Amino acid sequence: YEAKQRNDSVSVYAPEADHNSAARLGLLGDLRRALERPDRPELGELGVFYQPQVAIDSGEVVGVEALLRWRHPEHGMVGPEEVIRAAEHTAVMRLLTYRVLDEVVARVAQWQRDGLRLRAAVNVSVRDLHTADLVDHLAALLDKHDVAPSQIELEITEGALMADPRRVLATLRRLDRLGIALSLDDFGTGYSSMLHLRRLPLSEVKIDRSFVLGMGSDPDDAAIVRSIIELAGALGMRVVAEGVEDERTWRRLSSLGCQVAQGWFYARPMPAAELTSWLARYRPPRVRQPADAADPA
Ligand code: C2E
Ligand code: MG
Ligand code: MG
Ligand code: MG
């Protein structure tokens, strides 16, 4: 980056360096065009993948997280974090969130018709919570597709609360009154977490995957995971661990009393069509009881 600052003729691709970088503006224009296309969402460049969330003890699939995917015609898959970074400070963010919500609510309605009761969690960004019509838009969508609010959950991050806490709190309260469950994502990476847990109408915390990925090798990460599970339990909140990649992590989370897990150990995020066949094949992994080993029979 230093080279870039001192000499403009040295070109370094560094999208983090500047909100208005050429690369980002390029992406933003492409994104705007992709959003304008009237394609059915599942056929267009912009799509949503779904990753199962599983109750650790029963092995039951309790829901899915919806994750944005953009297949750019020239650059291939562009990661959601990069898409959000490009869009977040612009009016495009709202269109993107609505595109995801439209797709997810319609999908949940389709699952209902197929006899599948799956709750879907949708990520919303800081800016979405400052948008006055988010709640009305969501309420109208639920109404249109005849989906109960309890089938949709919104995941927010603590960053959302920093910019305009009063306005965000007002939006969260309206969502709560509507019956939408709210989850605090990436927990442990933001600011003043304890206060947020107490003041906001949250029903769930998600332990950030960096701690879960590290808990097998780093005692500090393990201590953080254990504390979050205890804290959430004491406050009567559901706790979800994301980034569960292997059996050992899954077993440890089970013994720590974590309720729900999400990660490659179960399944990677996948298109809706694949999810249906995954669900048909799925057999819950069994938590080995200590008695199994002792049982002489
Ligand atoms: P997130 O909400 O924390 O989502 C979890 C991320 O962890 C996803 O990355 C998922 O693919 C990844 N993941 C799941 N299981 C594992 C695992 O076992 N190991 C590892 N290493 N990773 C795992 P993804 O799909 O790249 O999304 C990244 C972030 O982008 C999300 O983090 C979320 O903050 C944001 N995002 C995704 N979709 C949307 C969206 O529709 N709207 C908004 N505003 N943000 C979104
Ligand atoms: Mg999330
Ligand atoms: Mg997360
Ligand atoms: Mg995240």
TrEMBL record:
Residues 24-283 form the EAL domain. It comes from the Bacteria. Coiled coil: none annotated. This is Diguanylate cyclase (GGDEF)-like protein.
